Amino acid sequence: MCILFYFWNEMNETKIKLKKKIIPLKGAQIPQFEAGILQELENQLKKEFTLVHEVKGDTTMGFTVENKRVTEIGLYKCELSNLPESIGNLKSLQDLLLDGNKLTTLPESIANLSSLQGLGLGSNKLTTLPESIANLKSLRYLFLDRNQLTTLPESIGNLKSLQTLLLNSNELSTLPESISNLRSLTYLNLGSNELTTLPESISNLKSLQLLYLEENQLTTLPESIGKLKSLQTLLLGNNQLTTLPKSIGKLKSLQGLLLDGNKLTTLPESIGKLKSLNTLLLGNNQLTTLPKSIVNLSKLERLRITDNPLVNNPNSKVKSLLKRLTRNGVRFEK
Question: pTM of the prediction?
Answer without folding.
Answer: 0.92
